[in-house]
Each structure stands twice: as structure tokens, then as C-alpha cells.
């Protein structure tokens, strides 16, 4: 396992068994719930059976990129305005910095010249979908777990979870409309795998099912899994197996 910084983005990279031959490159983003860092995501979803470099990028406002004040400051920002202070800046920054990070990873990782896959979980899935929709990275396939497919229902879920009321504004509604990948399904042109926990909130399950229907994407439902899938849990094992099989099938050659 290699840890480093690529174009300012912290990463963990795991090589294929043979680094002398060209290999696929699979790059993704963790959750803000568990697994909540690049290291934790690498442990939860190692994709060890995949003949590819697996690279796990750190999200803004998480892990090594926590702001001054740490998790308390992130909670304060989210409590003030989760859409404008957390979801929008995290997604925009992570998606915006991806092309430069990808170019550096291609250059630094031996043999990482094959087809590209992207993946993510929850907030990291939102980043993966945005990167896929932008269409400037030459992505061959994508996979997302516990995905934020539509932002507005996720804000409603957080209202229920934390017993708060979010005050929508014209600007935050525009952001939520932008992060609605059921409506933007036509922009998702690479094959997509959706993995959702059977026990997750309807804010995740229903948009994932709607995108599955609209796009014809593959959908795997994991019985007994809620939103998180920390390393060592049955949910993580199922996500790992689904991602490994999917990318193994889609990134061949």
C-alpha cells in the first residue's frame, strides 16, 4: 500500500500483483460516514481480486483535510447549511481537482495506463457521479454504494436523523437541482453499478432504484446493510464483492 499526495489530494494506492504489465486504474472516494477516510475505504473495499491499481482519494473536509477545529467544525458547518457549506464545496472541489490528480497518478503508478473506473460511497458517490457526468476523464465504468443520487432527499433524511429543519434558499435549491442524477441520467454515459443497503434510508434506496430504472444501470441490494459499511462487516464484504466483479467484467482489456 502506497500513501501520498497527487496534485494536492491525499491518496492511498494498492498495486496489482504484476506492475510490469499495463493495468486498469480504479479511483474513488470514501463516505463521510464509515468508512470515512481513504485508508478506511481501502480496508473496507480492497478489491483484492482485481487486476488493477486501486486508488482511494481523500475528500475535502475529511481525514487529513479536516479544517481547523476538526470534526466539530465540520458539524458546525453542516448545522449552519449542509448544502452550501458541505455538500456543494466538497463535491465541487473533489470533482474539480480530479483531472490533475488523475494525470499525476497515471504518471507515478507503474503500469497504470489501462482503462479507468471510478467509484464512491455516499458523499463520495456524489463526487463519482459528478465526475462521470462531466465526461472529461475517459471513464470506462463506474460503481457507487449507498449513493447520494439526489441531494434533496438526503437533506430530508438528515433532518429526520438529527431532528433539525433545513431552511432552503433559492441558491441551495439550485445546488440540489444540479445534484439530481435521476434528472441528469442522460449525462451518465459509462456503465454504472449501484449498490444499496436494504436497510438504508428511502432517501438513498428510492433515488437509486429510480436511476436504475431510468438508466438501465445494474442495481445490487445488500440485505442487512444500512448506510455505512465499515471494514470487516458483512456489508463491506458485499460491496467489495460487487465492485470487484463489476470492474473485473467492465475493465477487461
UniProtKB/TrEMBL annotation:
Gene3D superfamilies: alpha/beta hydrolase (3.40.50.1820). GO terms for biological process: proteolysis. Keywords: Hydrolase. InterPro entries: AB_hydrolase_fold (IPR029058), Peptidase_S9_cat (IPR001375). Residues 114-251 form the Peptidase S9 prolyl oligopeptidase catalytic domain. This is Alpha/beta hydrolase. It holds the Pfam family Peptidase_S9.
Amino acid at each position: 500500500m502506497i500513501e501520498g499526495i497527487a496534485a494536492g489530494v491525499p491518496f492511498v494506492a494498492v498495486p496489482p500483483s504484476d506492475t510490469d504489465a499495463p493495468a486498469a486504474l480504479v479511483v474513488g472516494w470514501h463516505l463521510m460516514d464509515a468508512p470515512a477516510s481513504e485508508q478506511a475505504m481501502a480496508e473496507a473495499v480492497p478489491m483484492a481480486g482485481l487486476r488493477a491499481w486501486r486508488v482511494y482519494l481523500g475528500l475535502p473536509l475529511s481525514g487529513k483535510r479536516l479544517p481547523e477545529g476538526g470534526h466539530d467544525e465540520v458539524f458546525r458547518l453542516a448545522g449552519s447549511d449542509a448544502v452550501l457549506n458541505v455538500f456543494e464545496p466538497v463535491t465541487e472541489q473533489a470533482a474539480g481537482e480530479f483531472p490533475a490528480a488523475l494525470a499525476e497518478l497515471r504518471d507515478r503508478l507503474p503500469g497504470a495506463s489501462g482503462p479507468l473506473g471510478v467509484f464512491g460511497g455516499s458523499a463520495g458517490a456524489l463526487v463519482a457521479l459528478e465526475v462521470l457526468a462531466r465526461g472529461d476523464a475517459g471513464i470506462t465504468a463506474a460503481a457507487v454504494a449507498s449513493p447520494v443520487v439526489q441531494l434533496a432527499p438526503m437533506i430530508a433524511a438528515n433532518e429526520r436523523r438529527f431532528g433539525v429543519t433545513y431552511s432552503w434558499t433559492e441558491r441551495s435549491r439550485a445546488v440540489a437541482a444540479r445534484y439530481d442524477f435521476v434528472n441528469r441520467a442522460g449525462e451518465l454515459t459509462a456503465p454504472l453499478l449501484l449498490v444499496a443497503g436494504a436497510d438504508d434510508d428511502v432517501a438513498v434506496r428510492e433515488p437509486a432504484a429510480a436511476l436504475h430504472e431510468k438508466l438501465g444501470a445494474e442495481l445490487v441490494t445488500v440485505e442487512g446493510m444500512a448506510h455505512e459499511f465499515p471494514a470487516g462487516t458483512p456489508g463491506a464484504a458485499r460491496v467489495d464483492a460487487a465492485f470487484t466483479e463489476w470492474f473485473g467484467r467492465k475493465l477487461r482489456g
